Amino acid sequence: MKSQRSPKILQISYSDGMDHLLVLREKIGHLREEIADIQKLNEQFRRDGGNGTEAQVAHGKRSDRLQAIQLELVRLADLGRKVISSEQMKEKHRTRLHLVQQKRAS
Fold it and tell me: Which is nearest to 24 in space by CA: 74, 91, 94?
């Protein structure tokens, strides 16, 4: 005779301790500040005529950094979509779990 086992209920918990969207927004805010600083320095470079090797090198470094920021923003946008998708899945799971619990309580 086989013993009947009751199915184990696995409860999945999600970390609510970290607001991933808030972290992304803060990172984007810092990048915006950096872009604004670079824009000011580039304006000064143009006003001063961009003369001198040192000024040219600094301008090149700023241009490189702007390109790096652009790539970072693309990656953050992708990550943001994943976080939102993950949040939607969590909510969907919570809704299903709540419905199952309500059904059992009935």
Answer: 74
Judged by phi (left if over 0) then psi (alpha if -120 to 50, else beta), residue 81 lies in alpha
24, 76 Cβ separation under 8 angstroms: yes
Strands (E), the chain: none
pLDDT digits (tens, 9 = 90+) for 69-100: 999 999 988 887 877 676 667 777 667 766 66
The set of residues, in sequence order, having a beta carbon less than 8 Å from that of 27 and lying 6+ positions away, is: 76
Residue with tokens 């946008």: 77
pLDDT tens by residue, 20-40: 778 888 999 999 999 999 999
- Residue position matching structure tokens 């304006």: 43
